[in-house]
Amino acid sequence: MMIRSVLAALLILAGSSTTLSAEPATKEGEIAVSHFKFGTGETLAELRLHFTTLGTPKRDASGRVTNAVLVLHGTGGSGHQFLRPQFADVLFKAGRLLDPAKYYIILPDDIGHGKSSKPSDGLHAKFPHYDYSDMVRGEMALLKGLKVDHLRLVMGTSMGCMHAFMWGEMYPDFVDALMPLACLPVEIAGRNRLWRKMTMDAITSDPAYMGGEYMSEPKEGLRTAVDMLLIAGSAPIPMQKDLPTRDAADSYYEKQMTARLGDLDANDLLYQVDSSRNYDPSPKLETVKAQVMWVNSADDFINPPELGIAEKEAARLRRGTYVLIPASEQTHGHGTHTWAELWQDRLQELLEKSAQ
């Protein structure tokens, strides 16, 4: 595997600098990794990894980067999701906890997501069958391309939450602090596996899927997939408040279906959901050296607290704190992970503890 630059250096795309509520500016870029080998043994001649950054790297006397923060998105997302107000306006503005004047914030598009290499680029079902380990190694390859040799913090939501635990195990000396948001560090089983299996089977069993070489999107399979995604991301208390009648709920559903179907590619979604198939960091949790602040919410359909898994696994962390946010009209089910006002005090605590 060889990382090479694009257009002689990291490609800072023309016109890519944007403004976030007047500040701060973001930059987008891309690196290419030659002959990236996946855990299945498959190889991609060129793996493109897209990213967005805020701020600039700072180095100590030995040249090591001291202020890099890696923020990892969830299944089907991209780094750009963290530029939404509920996350960026709370954390990335001047004087806030992750002020870009102080931190170098890196928002990758993981393998199979966003503007990084993915099945819909042309390989379709011949694209390598990546998993979470491949994605984390891709994140490390991106950091090498950016010449980042140390991370102050890895923060991740949902799938990115799971990646954060993997970072703590795969690269224990590379990162100071971990903030996993909305996940469990165990094999995906039970209801969590069921909705994923239902989603994948709905796609592949649609006759229009044609083994991944469809001429048009397999709409019936994707409709069922969207149904699963809507339920998995649901938040019962605010939904009951915001959709108090049958007509309101039906209208919401139709609008969501129309909006979500317009952006979905069946192969991309199938690969994204399937990439969790062999995730299980539980055997090595004691090897995590970083300070950990792990936050889940009580109304999370995907990671229901009544299973009691989190408390058991948190006790195995050397330097870990587990927090469960109570369900309320302010929480957003599984999506609570992106509403930073609900857990920013925990981030502050983590930054303070890991700086000692």
In N-to-C order, the SSE pattern is EEEEEHEHEHEHHHHHEHEH
Please identify the structural class as seen in this structure. Answer: alpha/beta
CATH topology term of the domain at 190-274 = Rna Polymerase Sigma Factor, Chain: A
**Rg from alpha-carbon coordinates:** 20 Å
Number of strands: 10
CATH architecture of the domain at 190-274: Orthogonal Bundle
CATH class of the domain at 190-274: Mainly Alpha
How do you describe this structure in short?
The chain has 356 residues and is an alpha/beta fold.
Describe the structure.
It is a single chain. With 356 residues, the protein is α/β, with parallel strands linked by helices. It has a domain of 85 residues: Rna Polymerase Sigma Factor, Chain: A, CATH 1.10.1740.110. The longest helix has 16 residues. Strands 1, 2, 3, 4, 5, 6, 7, 8, 9 and 10 form a ten-stranded mixed sheet that branches. Helix content is 31%, strand content 19%. About 5% of the residues have low confidence. Helix 4 packs antiparallel against helix 8. Helix 9 links the parallel strand 9 and strand 10. The chain is globular, with a radius of gyration of 20 Å.
Give the secondary structure arrangement, pairings included.
Blueprint: E1 2-4, E2 18-19, E3 25-37, E4 43-54, E5 68-72, H1 85-91, E6 104-108, H2 132-145, E7 151-157, H3 159-170, E8 175-181, H4 190-204, H5 219-232, H6 236-242, H7 246-261, H8 266-274, E9 291-297, H9 309-314, E10 320-325, H10 344-354
Parallel strand pairs: 5-6, 5-7, 7-8, 8-9, 9-10
Antiparallel strand pairs: 1-3, 2-3, 3-4, 4-6
Helix pairs in contact: 2-3, 4-5, 4-8, 5-7
